Predict the structure.
Amino acid sequence: MKRLLCALFLSIVGSALAEPQVILLKLDDVVARKIGSSPVSLRWQKVHDYLIEQKIKGSFGIITESLEKDNPTYFQWLKDVQAAGQIEFWMHGYHMKKASEPGEFEQGTAAEQQAILEKGAKLAQEKLGFPLVAFGPHWSGTTEATDEALQAVPSVKIWLYGPKQPKHFKRLSIERVLALENPTFVPDPEKFKTVYEKNAATREVLVLQGHPDQWDDKRWAGFVEIIEFLKSKNVVFMTPSEYLKKVQPNQP
C-alpha cells in the first residue's frame, strides 16, 4: 500500500512539474501582394492580426525571391512585424515552386543548395536588416545535400521539419510529426485532433505547418478551431528563436 501511495504521489508531482508543450506555428509562403496597395495578401494580414490579437507567437516563412525587386511598403511591413517580436520570419527557399516542378531542396548538390540558402540570407540582410535564423524547405522535400548545405550557412541555426538526427547539421533540427492541414491547405480540426492525440500529445515541441494564403472562410474557421483546441491543452506558443534559447541557451 505504501508503495502504491508513493507511486501515485510521484505521478501527481511529476505531472504538476511537467513543462507545457511548445508549439511553433510554421506558416508558409510569404510574398509581396501583386495587386492592391497592401504589402501582403488580405489572408496574410488576417492571420497576422489574429495572432497579435490573441497574443499567440508564430513564425512566417518568406520566399526570398520576393525580396529581389525594390518594394519599400512590403519590406517595411516585414521589418515592423519582426521588430514587434511576436512573429518571426524564416527562410522558406528562394523560388515559389509549382506543383509540376521539382523542389529546390529535392535536387542538386550541396554546393548548389548552399548557393540558394546564401542568396536568401544575403537578400534578407540587405533588404530587411536582420538574419533569417530558421529554415523550412518549400514543399518540404530535402536530400542529404540539404543537410550538408545548411551546416555551411552559419546564420541558419534552426531547421524546421528537419531530420530527427541530421548527418551534417549540428544545430537545432525539429522533425515533422503532423501539420495544421490534412490534406495540405485544409485545416481539418477533427483529423488534427485524432492525429494529435495519437502521435503528438506527449511531444515536448511540435512544429505545425500551414498555408494561410490558401485558406478561404471555411478553412480559416478550421484553423481557429485547431488553435482553440491547442489552447485547451495549455500549450505555449513560441517563435523558433525563442525555443532555441530555451533548449540551447548558450547558442550564439
